[in-house]
Design goal:
Helix content: 25-40%
Structural class: alpha/beta
Shape: globular
Oligomer: single chain
Number of strands: 15
CATH topology of the largest domain: Rossmann fold
Number of domains: 2
CATH superfamily of the largest domain: NAD(P)-binding Rossmann-like Domain
Largest sheet: 8 strands, parallel
Length: 319
């Protein structure tokens, strides 16, 4: 069995390869060529354990992930976990991957693919609200999907904001990184706005004119009580694009607007239909993509990484 740590995962595949794999996952999801039971949530206070099995014709795997928000105050990663890959014919374990880095990379790629398909090809500016681990990967992948020349960062923690700015300056030389003093200034200067927070109240201002005409990608809000988007945003969009219908039961950014009839069920569109042109996105105006993730993303991306690692002799063989 092959073990792939954080560094191995990054070495094994380029950002464009990972984003292409996410698009393959969307195709498999549309065709139904996979088995993905609803992921199991075990909640204990603010802490969550996720158990996510998935099976395709070529491989099957299971990701076990924990989300402990309090770890941030302990100097530990909020997300911990492992991904196990198995041979689909024999069930033999093939590989064990660091679950936290896999999650960060594939979620960054999900955001990057959303940037690919819902934003103008000439977009140059992007704003991020939430300076955690996922924030780094969202910006990194977005900058592979578009020729971004300026990034705006905002977080309630000035320390996190400064730390992320430093990491991005090192990883993305030549791109301007700024830390505006308010969310309003971030939105004002950004064509694309990504939210990556565990907020229970909207992190965007309820200013219709300010929000109008921009492109929003929601990565946080993975529980019913969590919300990042204000009511007014839903009145600006024709459709809300989602990566998986699990989100309709999991995210407050979908549950609350549907329950309150800010949007209708008919306005919810699976993102795979956008990629494969069944429902083309509007050429202009305001767009909104909401992700909660799905096990199929983890499986397809981890298979890509595993096969590339084998080919390039990356990782550690376990007895």
């Amino acid at each position: 069995m092959l073990y792939l740590n954080k560094e191995d995962i990054v070495k094994a595949a380029t950002p464009d390869q990972v984003m292409d794999a996410i698009e393959i996952a969307y195709a498999l999801d549309l065709s139904g060529e996979h088995e993905s039971p609803p992921r199991m949530h075990v909640n204990s206070g603010n802490n969550t354990l996720l158990y996510m099995p998935c099976l395709t014709d070529s491989i099957f795997g299971t990701k076990i992930l924990s989300l402990f928000p309090g770890n941030a105050d302990r100097g530990k990663a909020v997300i911990q976990g492992l991904m196990l890959l198995n041979d689909p014919d024999t069930g033999e374990p093939l590989a064990l991957l660091d679950g936290a880095r896999l999650t960060a990379v594939r979620t960054g790629a999900v955001g990057g693919v959303a940037v690919r398909h819902t934003t103008p090809g000439n977009a140059k500016t992007i704003g991020l609200i939430g300076a955690g681990i996922q924030g780094f990967h969202q910006i990194y992948f977005a900058c592979q999907a578009r020729s971004i020349d300026r990034v705006y960062l905002y977080d309630l923690s000035e320390t996190k904001q400064i730390e992320l700015a430093g990491k991005l300056k090192e990883a993305l030389p030549g791109i301007g990184i700024e830390t505006p003093s308010s969310v309003e200034k971030l939105v004002e200067n950004s064509e694309i706005v990504i939210t990556a927070t565990p907020a229970t109240n909207p992190v965007l201002p309820g200013d219709r004119e300010l929000l109008k005409g921009r492109h929003y990608i929601g990565i946080g809000s993975y529980k019913p009580e969590m919300r990042e988007f204000p009511r007014v945003l839903y009145s600006l969009v024709k459709n809300v694009y989602i990566d998986t219908e699990h989100g309709l039961e999991e995210s407050g950014d979908l549950i609350t607007p549907l329950q309150n009839e800010w949007i209708s069920r008919e306005q919810i569109v699976r993102f795979g239909e956008i990629i494969f042109s069944k429902i083309p996105p509007p050429p202009e105006g305001t767009t909104l993509f909401k992700s909660v993730g799905m096990a199929l993303f983890d499986l397809v991306v981890s298979e890509l990484i595993y096969r590339s690692a084998l080919k390039n002799k990356i990782g550690t063989l376990l007895a």
